[in-house]
């Protein structure tokens, strides 16, 4: 091993990938051709984005996993810079997000009410937001531009609902395409109901198709990985008991009430799709992903397609490690 200079700048992963690909190409005739092909097919590694601003785009107010994810972000991410709501319900989702952030002392994080798709079914937080919480602003593009202007680095976009807001930003501000590193909960290669697309994609198929075709750095946290009782919260889970414990803080009591309403109205558990998407966006080590070419049908059903668009997609997760992480984020 040769001498090293501790003051020499560390080579980036992107640079190392490029150097290795160049080496494999130069010596392809010596047997490195397959390595070059694999490197080129896999593409460069995702950019390093630790400590860069975070935008959360959420349909909070339905399945409580959004509220749990926003709680994790509010409590542990000083980089949380903006919360957008999508699939709005008359501004109620944005007001609820504002209330939850305020309970965590995150008055510094603006909330903007985004696209309203006219859906009202998955909304269980009626009456949980105090009347004195005002309606939130509605200019999504201006808010996103403000975050991007605050840094010369990438900005992390964590999508937890339909892709309507993101599609509009990429369409109306193409200069931001290369600035946003997108992690989106949504899509499925082997969806449990093959007759339709995954929930977040099917609520706005055109937006999903536009994002897959346009986003420069896109990582999809697929339902194939997130739809499992191994990461569900129910009344029997330790996480629920923590939130329901005597003396729990107000934010925990709010989450517990939100969960109870969901259990009564829809399902006896809440799979934590969106906290897992947040963990993936934070590049935590218990989520694996790979680069694939994907295509979306007109209704946004997803398939692998050698002529499709490149995207990173999740392949598996260490569920016990994720559950431990989630419990740590919610401890008080």
Automatic annotation (TrEMBL):
Q: Where is the signal peptide?
A: none
Pfam families in the cross-refs: IU_nuc_hydro
Q: List GO molecular-function terms, semicolon-separated.
A: purine nucleosidase activity
Q: Which SUPFAM superfamilies match?
A: Nucleoside hydrolase (SSF53590)
Biological process according to GO: purine nucleoside catabolic process
Report the PANTHER family cross-referenced here. INOSINE-URIDINE PREFERRING NUCLEOSIDE HYDROLASE (PTHR12304), URIDINE NUCLEOSIDASE (PTHR12304:SF4)
- What this protein is called in its record is Inosine-uridine nucleoside N-ribohydrolase
> What is the protein's species of origin?
Nocardia tenerifensis
């Amino acid at each position: 091993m040769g001498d090293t200079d501790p003051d020499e700048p560390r080579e980036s992963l992107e640079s190392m990938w490029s150097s290795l690909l160049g080496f494999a190409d130069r010596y392809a005739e010596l047997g490195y051709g397959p390595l070059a092909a694999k490197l080129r097919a896999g593409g460069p590694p995702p950019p390093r984005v630790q400590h860069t601003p975070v935008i959360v785009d959420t349909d909070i107010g339905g399945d409580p996993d959004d509220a749990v994810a926003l709680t994790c972000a509010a409590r542990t991410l000083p980089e949380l810079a903006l919360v957008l709501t999508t699939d709005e319900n008359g501004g109620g989702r944005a007001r609820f997000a504002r209330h939850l952030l305020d309970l965590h002392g995150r008055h510094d994080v603006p909330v903007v009410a985004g696209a309203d798709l006219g859906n009202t079914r998955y909304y269980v937080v009626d009456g949980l937001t105090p009347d004195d919480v005002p309606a939130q602003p509605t200019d999504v593009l201006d808010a996103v531009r403000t975050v991007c202007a605050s840094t010369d680095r990438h900005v992390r976009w964590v999508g937890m609902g339909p892709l309507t807001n993101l599609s509009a930003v990429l369409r109306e501000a193409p200069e931001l395409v290369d600035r946003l590193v997108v992690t989106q909960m949504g899509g499925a290669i082997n969806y449990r109901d093959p007759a339709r697309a995954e929930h977040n994609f099917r609520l706005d198929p055109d937006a999903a198709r536009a994002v897959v075709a346009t986003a420069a750095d896109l990582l999809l946290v697929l339902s194939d990985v997130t739809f499992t009782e191994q990461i569900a919260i129910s009344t029997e889970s330790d996480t629920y008991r923590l939130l329901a414990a005597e003396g729990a803080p107000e934010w925990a009591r709010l989450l517990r009430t939100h969960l109870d309403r969901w259990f009564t109205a829809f399902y006896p558990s809440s799979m934590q799709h969106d906290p897992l998407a947040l963990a993936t966006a934070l590049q935590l080590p218990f989520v694996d992903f790979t680069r694939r070419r994907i295509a979306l049908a007109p209704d946004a059903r997803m398939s692998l397609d050698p002529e499709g668009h490149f995207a990173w997609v999740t392949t598996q997760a260490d569920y016990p490690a994720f559950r431990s992480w989630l419990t740590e984020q919610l401890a008080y």
